[in-house]
Amino acid sequence: MLLDENSLAKTIDNVNDALFWKKPISSNERKAVSGWISDRFAKPGSYRGLFAPTDFDYRNGIKLYTGEKVSSGAGTAHILSEEAGRALLLLGSDINEDVRQTLLSMLSERDTPKQPWGLWCCGTCSASLWRHLAAGGGDRQEQRMINGLKDIERFRLMNGRWKRYPFYYTILALTEMNVALARDELRFAGNAMERAVVRLRDRDEYEVRKKELLGRALEMI
């Protein structure tokens, strides 16, 4: 069962897991989950009027699909909003106009006359935005992703990772972005991914996900 009415984070994690492993989702379950997520829109505690985490999410913090912890309230609210919008799109739900306009307004506040904005406050929030854009959220998705990815090269480290950007969650976003700069970053991280695969032991669901993710990412380069 995908829906967990106590937690937006757990519901989205369940959806992400079904999509990642290509598990079948019945039309009834798609409808139930999409309806519940949509009902979180603009509730108290939401980030910029988007999708509100539950009290449980705020009390306990959240983990990204790849296991990295998010403890700040603002990060929890923003990342879950991006992930919620992405989930609705990939579940085939119609995004209502209020949701679309709220996201576009949030993005356009940082646009310049010539360039659409493609970053957010930190690497984790930026990667969540890229995942949403890659699924078709917002507008001018390709250009926003390209402009966002122009930032990540500045944070490359000698070990094939990035400062500021969480390694596995960033890899996850890069595998979903159909732009050349994303492949460039995957190639940059290639040796780091090969080293990480060897260390992963399938000790929990996050390690299983990471190992599969890195295998897919390495095949792309």
Could you characterize the architecture of this molecule?
Helices cover 59% and strands 2% of the residues. The protein is mostly helical. Helix 1 (8-20) packs across helix 4 (73-90), helix 4 (73-90) packs parallel to helix 6 (123-134) and helix 7 runs parallel beside helix 9 (180-188). The termini are far apart. The longest helix is centred in the middle third of the chain and has 18 residues, at 73-90. Strand 1 and strand 2 (69-70) form a beta hairpin.
- Global structural class: mainly alpha
- Quick one: overall form? globular
Largest sheet: 2 strands, antiparallel
Indicate the percent of residues in helices: 55-70%
**pLDDT below 50 for ≥5 consecutive residues: which ranges?**
none
Beta-strand portion reads: under 5%
How far apart, in Å, are the first and last alpha carbons? 35 Å
Major beta sheet, strand line-up: 1-2
Indicate the radius of gyration in whole angstroms: 17 Å
Query: If helices are DSSP runs of H or I spanning 4 or more residues, what is the number of helices?
Result: 11
Q: How many β-strand stretches?
A: 2
Q: Determine the mean pLDDT.
A: 94
Question: What is the string of helix and strand elements?
Answer: HHHEEHHHHHHHH
Summarize it:
With 221 residues, the chain is mainly α. 59% of the residues lie in helices and 2% in strands.
Any key phrases for this structure?
221 residues; mainly alpha; two-stranded antiparallel ribbon; 11 helices; 2 strands
